[in-house]
Design a protein that fits this description.
This protein is 54% helix and 10% strand. By secondary structure, the protein is an alpha/beta fold. The chain folds into 4 domains: 3-64, DnaA, N-terminal domain (GMP Synthetase, Chain A, domain 3, 2-Layer Sandwich), CATH 3.30.300; 99-245, Rossmann fold; 251-316, Helicase, Ruva Protein, domain 3 (Orthogonal Bundle); 329-417, DnaA protein, C-terminal DNA-binding domain (Chromosomal Replication Initiator Protein Dnaa, Chain: A, Orthogonal Bundle). The protein starts with a helix and ends with a helix. The structure holds adenosine-5'-triphosphate.
Length: 420
Amino acid sequence: MTYDNVVAPAKAYSLSNGRLTVVVPTDYHLDFWQNKLDVQLKHILKEETGQDIDTRYVLTKDLIGAKPTDNVKKEPTFKETTPLNPEYTFETFVEGRSNQFAYASAYGASEQPGLLYNPLLIYGGVGLGKTHLMQAIANAMLQRNPNAKIKYVTSENFVNDYINSIKTGTQEQFRQAYRDLDALLVDDVQFLSSKNETQLEFFNTFNVLHDNNKQIVLTADQNPKEIPNLTERLVSRFVWGLTVEITPPDLETRIAILNRKADEEHIENVPNEVFNFIASKINTNVRELEGALMRVRVFAQLHSQPMSLSVAKEALQGIGEDASTELNIDLIQKKVAAYFNINQSDITGKKRVKNIVVPRQIAMYLSRELTDNSLPRIGRAFGGKDHTTVLHAIDKIEKQIGQDTQLKNTVDKLQNDLRP
Ligand SMILES: Nc1ncnc2c1ncn2[C@@H]1O[C@H](COP(=O)(O)OP(=O)(O)OP(=O)(O)O)[C@@H](O)[C@H]1O
């Protein structure tokens, strides 16, 4: 068989989610393309499109009910689909107390799309792994069924697509592109706030997908009930299935994330004290945590030094929290949680039941009394709360200490235990 005979029968079948599917007639062709031509094809695709396009080869007979075409299937008019990051999988996600529930829910949704939790809404602060988990669902679904039709967009993309469809009179195509799916993943739904027309369109899209048991996954930076200017009916749809929160990872999880990142990036011989130091400094945002590790690596390389604690300290000067200060808030949260027999994640979480709210307010009060942290910093360490929430908590405890002797004794005891 000549080279031409191998190349000519292969047909580009479809291009979606950043992946080109090529159909080939026999196992021989499959083997040849996978092992001899794939690298070249990827190279050409990169040159032509400027993007890293993944490839997949399928035998014609395996395309059940599908009709190969001579040309690449036309991309939908609404192609705001952002390619999935193949690195965002369940395997590369480090589980800890702060994200356990979100992880388990996302995993469940990927195993039984559309059936278990629909929609699944993951919310939490910046850089805590919401997008990672959302895309892990899509990647797992595609691994099980490479033909699954999955669309991942930010809500801004959805808005843009919708506006374009109005401008160009192509609303019908828009609807088709968003409704003929097995799963729709929309990141950062808080951007739908105040966009009433788009909200209505999204509401309708949501209903069609949901009625057909198609999986919907959403992320937001806060509980949808607290997103301003989101219509009531949309909020009620968002929280219809399962709503889970991700809070900032605790110290142990941060260290585990750093270890994983170092492995992934082949950064070797990092002493544990360097991981501990970085994890103590950066306590609210995993993206920054990873960035700090890379910064230490580059700094060490530039100065031709090993990644020692002193190098890390120099590299991260002025970045993140002061380690001793951070430990204090962490310690205060732990002490208060232990005293009231609740979890530290309750203290940093958002539950509003009294037996959690009061300890949380006491912990905020003590963080203000015993450390030099500003109100916004304390807010961040308590799961990304606003500084006004912290202020309110401190005021409340201050007032109640004057009226309630039992509360005063509790706060005094905690304060004495915590003081160095
Ligand atoms: N538990 C985790 N294990 C491994 N990597 C994580 C974890 N949490 C976050 N990351 C990594 O941190 C980075 C930021 O995560 P991601 O983009 O998913 O955050 P996000 O919550 O969607 O943030 P944003 O609100 O800014 O969109 C990514 O590189 C992600 O892989």
